[in-house]
Amino acid sequence: MEGFLQQYLRLYRPLISSLNELLGKYNLSYSLWQVIYYIKHHGPSTLVEIAKRYSVEKPTITRRVSCLEDLQLVEKIESRDRREKLMQLTPKGEELYAACRKEISNLEREILEKLSENELQSFFETLSKIRQQLAEKEGKQK
Asked: Which stretch is the leader sequence (predicted)?
C-alpha cells in the first residue's frame, strides 16, 4: 500500500507540534517529556535503559537528562554500579508529571472523541502489529 508513510507523517508532525505547544508552558518539549514519562512508569532508570527504549544514542539522553536536572525535575541517585547514572523524578518532577499528564489526556480525548470504541480498538491493534513488524525487521538486520 503506497502512502502509508505520508499518512503517518501527516499525523505525526501535527501531534508532536501540539504536544510541544502544550508542554512548552512547563518549559518542556516532547523529547524531555519522554524521559519523564519513562522514569515515571519504570521507576529509577539508567540512561542506557531510557536510550534503548526510545532508540536514541546515550549522549542524546544524557543531554535531555542534564536539562531535566537543571529544571530540578530529575535527580541522580546511588546505584550499585558507580559508572551508571540512575535517575529518578524529584517531587517537583512528580508534580509536573501529574499536571502534564492531565493536559495530555485531555488532548488525547479531544483528538479521539469522534472515533468509536471499535475504531479505537482496531487502530491500537494495527499500531501494535506495525510496531511488532518493525521490531522483527530490526532484529533481522542486526
From this structure: none
